[in-house]
Design a protein that fits this description.
- It is a single chain.
- By secondary structure, the protein is an alpha/beta fold.
- The protein has a domain of 213 residues: Rossmann fold (3-Layer(aba) Sandwich).
- It contains 13 helices and 18 strands.
- The strands form 4 sheets. Strands 4, 5, 6, 7, 12, 16, 17 and 18 form an 8-stranded mixed sheet that branches. Strands 3, 8, 9, 10 and 11 form a 5-stranded antiparallel sheet that branches.
- Helix 5 links the parallel strand 4 and strand 5.
- The longest helix is centred in the first third of the chain and has 20 residues.
- The chain is globular and about 60 Å long.
- The termini are far apart.
Length: 400
């Protein structure tokens, strides 16, 4: 029987969520002990970035390190590749354009999810006689890696020699396409607030066997400078709360070192800076996902739920530019998929039921009130100047 758990949000409102079973609760308790021990070793508090990192990635215990389903109907959330294979077929068209222009190359998918996106992209490239030399999947979760390997072995047994799993970025010199779909939203973020005395970082502490927020000086000079810069530029009021994702910026800089020629394609939900730090978005963008329910309390279901924050795309573009890359395109998911010809696939439907199903999938991926406008696509290139097909319909680089 599926009972609702009597959880509360940080503001005290009750949240009706399915109750984890005894094994899951025990798993969460083990992880929370690990976090509490590290917290005790660090003066009784941790930055939220570190708390989030442990909650999601602690070896053997974090959300992405555990063995429970994450994606799809049996998991906690659905990504675009799970909603429709048409999404990945559109990505394959963009990948093919770059590979052809480079005269060949490799593909690197960072964070392979269920493996369905890799399978769909490879099937499309195979049909178009445009397979990459190698298709790399960088996956840190052993559980997800096992799921990906099983799926790809079943669907593409004849090209297994081209698919290689990695645990770290390739050495510099990579030529081809690097793609990350819904990855950056799960990188640890620092939380901050504008207090009466000035900018403050929001830390996590343990009180009465519960996790709670506390304020303190920013944990680094870099973070302090960023918060103060935002406060001045965006005129943030006292009481304002938001996040800064230094990890995502560092990640982009690392990929810039790896990519010698080609495209880095980032797809995620988020905003440019002025929208992200709008005074009316004054409670931040933290969101948690558990069994297809969304809420904003990261201090419950630790290790059992996903924790995310929206992506601030201006910061990623700046990090890429500083690392010597070119910002080659920025648009909505809807505009990107329409430019890739997503509606053209409808002519391949064999029957009315398939046409109806595909039409519903296209609406989910492209309608403004669904995934179409909230999800953005950012293209970063090195030694590649050909206009990218996916940004031919609408390019919003002037919004960054």
């Amino acid at each position: 029987m599926n009972h609702d758990a009597d959880f509360k949000s940080p503001e005290g409102a009750r949240i009706g969520l399915p109750l984890p079973d005894a094994a899951a609760q025990a798993h969460s308790a083990r992880l929370q002990r690990v976090i509490a021990e590290e917290m005790a070793d660090n003066g009784g508090r941790l930055s939220f970035a570190r708390f989030m990192e442990l909650a999601l990635y602690a070896p053997g215990l974090g959300y992405y390190s555990g063995g429970s389903p994450k994606l799809g109907a049996e998991g906690d959330f659905m990504t675009a590749p799970e909603w429709s294979h048409l999404f990945s077929r559109c990505l394959a068209r963009q990948v093919a354009q770059v590979l052809v222009a480079l005269g060949g190359g490799d593909v690197l998918e960072v964070g392979g999810g269920s493996g369905v996106m890799a399978a769909d992209i490879l099937e499309s490239l195979l049909a178009d006689d445009c397979l990459p030399r190698r298709y790399y999947i960088l996956e840190l979760s052993a559980d997800l890696r096992d799921r990906q390997q099983s799926l790809l072995k079943n669907r593409l047994p004849h090209i297994q020699d081209r698919i290689i799993w990695l645990e770290r970025l390739p050495e510099p010199g990579f030529r081809g396409v690097i793609v990350a779909n819904e990855l950056l939203d799960a990188l640890p973020v620092h939380c901050f607030t504008i207090a009466e005395a000035g900018a403050a970082e929001l830390y996590v502490e343990r009180r009465d066997e519960q996790w709670s927020w506390c304020q303190g000086e920013p944990s680094s000079a870099e973070l302090s400078g960023r918060i103060e810069g935002l406060q001045q530029a965006e005129d943030l009021p006292v009481g304002y709360i938001s996040e800064i994702n230094l990890a995502a910026e560092a990640w982009v800089a690392s990929l810039a070192e790896t990519l010698a020629a080609g495209l880095l394609l980032l797809i995620d939900y988020g905003f440019p800076r002025r929208e992200y730090y709008h005074p009316q978005r004054n409670r931040g963008t933290l969101m948690c996902h558990y069994r297809h329910r969304a809420h904003a309390n990261p201090f419950i279901l630790v290790g059992l739920q996903d924790i995310t924050a929206h992506v601030e795309f201006t910061a990623l573009a700046e990090a890429a530019y500083a690392a010597g890359m070119k910002v080659a395109g920025y648009t909505t998911q809807a505009a990107f998929l329409m430019a890739q010809g997503i509606t053209e696939f409808m002519s391949e439907a064999d029957d009315e039921l398939t046409r109806l199903r595909w039409a519903q999938q296209i609406k989910k991926l492209t309608m403004p009130h669904e995934m179409g406008d909230l999800f953005k696509v950012l293209a970063l290139t090195r030694e590649f100047d050909e206009p990218l097909r996916g940004f031919g319909l609408r390019d919003m680089r002037n919004h960054l």
